[in-house]
Amino acid sequence: MEFKIDATSNGARACTIKTAHSTILTPVFMPVGTQGTVKALDANDMLELGAKIILGNTYHLYLRPGSKLIKKFGGLHGFSKFPNSFLTDSGGFQAFSLSDNSKPDENGITFKSHIDGSKHYFTPQSVLNTQYDLGSDIMMILDDLVALPNTKERIQKSIERTTKWAKEAIEYHMSQKEKGIGVNQNIFAIIQGGTDKEFRKMSAEQLCAMTDYDGYAIGGLSVGEPNQDMYETVEWTTQFMPKDKPRYLMGVGTPEDLIENIERGVDMFDCVMPTRNARNGTLFTTFGRLNIKKAEFKEDTNPIDNACECYTCKNFSRAYLNHLFRASEITYFRLASIHNIHYYLQLMKDAREAILANNWTEFKKEFYAKRSK
Description:
Number of strands: 16
Family: Belongs to the queuine tRNA-ribosyltransferase family.
Largest sheet: 8 strands, parallel, barrel
Binding site for substrate: 89-93, 143, 192, 220
Cofactor: Zn(2+)
Strand content: 15-25%
Low-confidence stretches: none
Helix content: 40-55%
GO molecular function: metal ion binding; tRNA-guanosine(34) queuine transglycosylase activity
Domain tRNA-guanine(15) transglycosylase-like: 11-372
């Protein structure tokens, strides 16, 4: 991976990340392709939207169709036909959230499949083996995620495990690279610690001392804590992260969350929100959210967003989208998802231009001013 900082503006960073499959300009939002596809869209749609990186889910792809099958098709790139970069998470969050009785121990996580109830065990090494098969450009390591709020004892235990697993993961990855495995794949560690400043500092310092990691993520946020607590935790944590490597905030969030955390020095984001909200009738616009289900849009000739240049807005009316949603037409999912993903990607492009022009403060003010009208 090549990484360089192109510009900064009031804490916000514009960077360039080069992987084996694409050049990624930050700040960047990574659409979530849980099953190897962004829901309702295909590889061509993502290329038309200009996506340089999407996220695949190790847990889901491990269970179905299986990483060995995907490897036979040339990894995620060959299987999905999306030629740009993939980031794959470790699957630890899904093992934690989808299994009724997932159980971490000192060496890994035991969980039951949400599909058929079969029992499985993830270790720092096994999740990397799965991701080697998937051929992702960025691999996330296994971490011990805890629900918030939680006891100090449990959060400290999660940090101890996460650090232990991070050491095992980086040692294993370096040994595999010596064997010619994963040589074009990059590896990120995940900082834990809840919203406790001392725990976040402890986790960040322990993980960032492992300098062979290609980047670092902030995990365990956007899990129910107040937004302001999340922002303060990110601002506190980034000071302990190296300036010369990518910073990734996992599972966040709304357009406002992205703007606030870009200002706090974050480079990379992912969230299911644009596609999930699209399917449920909520569309993101320059002026805030729009609920396309409302009767007021039944005869509305306007596009979703007059300021938007996406395929959906250039070709279809709010009335048509309202009709498709009410008629439960599958086409609605595609057109709405195209718009929401375009909105998020365009917001990141506009943010980058503002940083390059050293105009971040004005850009942020304008972003909020439009949404308050």
